[in-house]
Design brief:
The chain is built from 6 helices and 12 strands. It has an 8-stranded antiparallel β-sheet. Strands 2-3 form a two-stranded antiparallel sheet. A two-stranded antiparallel ribbon has the order 5-6. The chain is α+β, with helices and mostly antiparallel strands and 203 residues long. It is globular. Helix 2 runs antiparallel to helix 5 and helix 4 packs across helix 5.
Length: 203
């Protein structure tokens, strides 16, 4: 993994077509046409039923959600990517209690501790294809135990993905080819523990 100062990323975001929202906490694509979808920890009990959370507190679903997105990035050949947690540290709690309460796995704790010990807790993390497993181990705790919103974007500004504490991953792109390939790949999935909401179904 490599690192980039948050201020350096903020400087290059406009050239990638990404803008920071007025609240300073959300990133948006500066494009008139956004294609995308949400992966959410909501599941329909039957076709005409309401949606409900799947086993709240169960990290397994979030792990599958994040892993699916990471595999999709691989399929789309979008590496390297930037991981960005706006004004937040990747790890800002004591590790021992989290491990004792099974809120983190040892592998997650090891990766996050390494980042902290290198003094990179507030930095943007640059992930290459060879660091896919580390990316999953960084992102899952942000959605679960730490309840933080963070972002992933590729180095050409083709994709902006947000990971939120309400168990939702939003994938946005302004590249039709990227979207078509992502859609084709995801539609092949079966028996997933999450729901996919396609933006085009609501436009």
């Amino acid at each position: 993994m490599r690192y980039l100062k948050e201020s350096d990323l903020l400087e290059i975001l406009p050239s990638l077509g990404i803008i920071v929202g007025k609240d300073g906490q959300k990133l948006h694509m500066n494009s008139s046409r956004i294609l995308g979808f949400d992966i959410t920890n909501l599941q329909s009990i039957k076709e005409d039923a309401y949606y409900e959370m799947i086993e709240a507190g169960d990290r397994n679903v979030e792990y599958v959600m994040v892993s699916t997105v990471v595999k999709l990035l691989d399929t789309l050949s979008l590496f390297p990517v930037y991981l960005y947690a706006i004004d937040n540290e990747w790890l800002d709690e004591e590790i021992a209690p989290l491990l004792a309460n099974n809120m983190l796995t040892k592998e997650e704790a090891d990766v996050l501790t390494d980042i902290q010990q290198e003094g990179k807790g507030m930095d943007v993390i640059i992930i290459e294809h060879t660091s896919i497993q580390q990316m999953v181990r960084i992102l899952v705790p942000q959605m679960t135990v730490f309840s933080k919103r963070c972002y992933l974007l590729d180095s050409m500004g083709r994709v902006l993905i947000s990971f939120s504490a309400d168990d939702e991953i939003s994938f946005d792109t302004n590249d039709q080819k990227v979207y078509d390939k992502a859609r084709e790949s995801l539609l092949k999935l079966t028996n997933t523990p999450f729901n996919i909401i396609w933006a085009e179904d609501y436009t």
